[in-house]
Amino acid sequence: MSGTGTVILGIETSCDETAAALVTQDGSIMANVVSSQAELHARYGGVVPEVASRRHLELVSPVVREAIARADASLDDVGLVAVTQGPGLIGALLVGLAAAKAIAWSRRLPLVPVDHLDGHVASLYLQPAPLEPPFLCLLASGGHTMLVDVESHSSRRVLGTTLDDAAGEAFDKGARLLGLGYPGGRELDRLAREGDPAAFDFPVARVPGLDFSFSGLKTALLYATRKLSPDQLERRRADLAASYQRAIVRALVERTREAAAQLGGAPIAVVGGVAANSELREALADAALAPLELTTDNAAMIASAARFVEPVQYPGYLGLDAFASR
Ligand code: KG4
Ligand code: ZN
Asked: Which CATH class is domain 135-266?
């Protein structure tokens, strides 16, 4: 490429992934670089916000440079900078936002602040098979679990959300109880394949409306593990994982189908880290599932979302702040 000035540079640092991507106006991914800090946080059993911010600070420039290099492009090709503004860890967000402002300002480019959740939804709008709204979207990640009525590329309505833990959080906490690493969702998914999902009866709270609740489930798993001797626990770990996963997936699928029916049989889409779960993907095989590599946090989805938002022109964005929650 030679200085086309049309490409979108996306930056995402809301949690423990430092990510940068180059995406074209029509939603083709030119490069999508994700540097995960998971190993750094593993020994604490969860993300340590201050450790995450510092790591983002070290990684954000090299990751942006890597994305530009992998796209075989230069900064002259970039016409717009997109960055996650929130929700997420405030210190982590500020690093990405400052980097995005600096790049945009130095080249007098416009900037789009993106809501992380719109980013996850926009993972469905990328090539080669962009989904067209309207649809009902299940967004299930480490920080969020919600059902969203996506009316158009730029308008959405939240129909239900979790009253306590997010689905990904339930996976991670369950994994921890079963002695798996952090983040444990993927490990639990793997272990569950060797177990019997009917071995244990884990109830999922039915709350009114289209909301979710997962905190009771985690307690049920805790009690089940306490009843077992260390030997028994070791032998039944796969059964516990399979039964626990079945309960989460069932809750997600039931509510999603209910919401789709309420919207008059709307098509279903699934995004967010938990959309990588193999049992969920099977149970909702008729739905539009975010491509596996775009389920967990990445910057291509942030650049994708920016295509449907009015940019803030130079230098109006310098005063923008990040937000931890809505
Ligand atoms: O979207 P994401 O990367 O970050 C947030 O925005 O929160 O989601 C991360 C979450 C973690 O809780 C992780 O355990 C979960 O997605 N996850 C999975 C799987 N892969 C990632 N959960 C269940 N099964 C998987 N295969
Ligand atoms: Zn996310």
From this structure: alpha beta
For residue 94, give the H/E element and its range.
Answer: helix 90-106
Report which bound ligand comes closest to the CA of 114: 2
Indicate if the pLDDT at residue 203 is higher than 90: no
Which CATH class for the 7-129+297-319 domain?
A: alpha beta
- Region of 65 on the Ramachandran plot (φ > 0 left; ψ -120 to 50 alpha; else beta): alpha
| Three-class SS state of 147 | strand
Report which ligand 1 atom has the smallest distance to the Cα of 190. 26
Ligand 1: list residues with CB < 6 Å. 15, 141-143, 168, 171-172, 183-186, 189, 272-274, 276-277, 296-297
**pLDDT tens, position by position, 81-136:** 999 999 999 999 999 999 999 999 999 999 999 999 999 999 999 999 999 999 99
Q: How far is the CA of 70 from the centre of ligand 2 (A)?
A: 23
Instruction: Give the separation between CA 160 and CA 171, rounded to whole angstroms.
Output: 20
Q: Where in the chain is the domain with CATH 3.30.420.40?
A: 7-129+297-319, 135-266
Give the Cα separation of 215 and 260 in Å (integer): 25
Please list the residues that pair with 140 across neighbouring strands.
145
- Alpha-carbon span 303 to 32, nearest angstrom: 10
- Strand pairing class (288-289; 268-271): parallel
Q: Specify which residues 288 forms β-bridges with.
A: 269
